[in-house]
Design goal:
The protein is mainly beta. The protein has two helices and 17 strands. The chain folds into two domains: 1-94, no CATH class; 100-217, Beta Barrel (Cathepsin D, subunit A, domain 1), CATH 2.40.70.10. One of its GO terms (biological process) is proteolysis.
């Protein structure tokens, strides 16, 4: 019996089929563990669910568990999820990749959101004044970033000029939208959020209406 839980890289299942299945929205599904061959721990749109083989939860049906993999069906399309696999994306035939992020303002009018860096979950704060995505050293270590191999630079912060490491993130994902090869810096200390700077934001057309920010992918 495999152990449930653990911080495992997610597999992303994005299925938006046409015709009779057009009502199904995309789903984000992670495989976090199995209970032998009878049940799996799936995280469906951020909600952990123990699903038995043959059962369906939120439109996701677990068909089988074999060799550490779970075979699921969603919107008429089957997908194999693997424990510890790198993030992947599957779209049904004819479906367009997701291109839009919608963020409501939170406390103090700030735009914060959960997302992923290189497949690991973190929290972001939109910062249009930051040149790059900025990550505190403690969070970078939690995310498993090998920032010490990055380029050593100095950067200006609210506390003055500090040393930093510059690196490329393989992927940054918010909701269903993923951007690859994004520049970031790691600075000393602890930060409450990862600052979502212009190395990410410049990939999008940004607009704000009242307390809602919409990011539309440019390319």
């Amino acid at each position: 019996m495999n152990c449930l839980g653990g911080r495992l890289a997610p597999v992303l299942l994005l299925l938006a089929s046409g015709h009779a299945l057009a009502q199904l929205p995309p789903a984000q599904v992670n495989l976090n563990g199995t209970l032998g061959s009878r049940a799996a721990l799936l995280v469906i749109d951020g909600q952990p669910r123990t699903v038995e083989v043959g059962a369906s939860v939120q439109g996701v049906r677990l068909l089988a568990i074999e060799d550490g993999r779970a075979v699921v069906e969603y919107g008429g399309r089957r997908q194999s999820l693997t424990l510890g696999a790198a993030p992947g994306r599957v779209l049904s035939q004819g479906a367009a990749p997701p291109r839009q992020i919608v963020l409501p303002a939170g406390a103090g009018g700030h735009f914060t959101t959960m997302g992923m860096i290189n497949g690991q979950v973190t929290s972001f704060l939109v910062d249009t004044g930051a040149t790059s995505i900025s990550i505190g050293q403690i969070e970078a270590e939690k995310l498993g970033l090998r920032y010490m191999y990055g380029k050593r630079i100095v950067t200006q912060t609210a506390n003055g000029v500090v040393p930093a490491y510059q690196l490329q993130l393989a992927s940054v994902r918010i909701g269903s939208v993923e951007v690859r090869d994004v520049e970031a810096i790691v600075i000393p200390g602890l930060m409450s959020h990862v600052l979502l700077g212009n190395s990410f934001l410049n990939r999008f057309q940004m607009r704000r209406e009242n307390d809602v920010m919409t990011l539309e992918l440019r390319y």
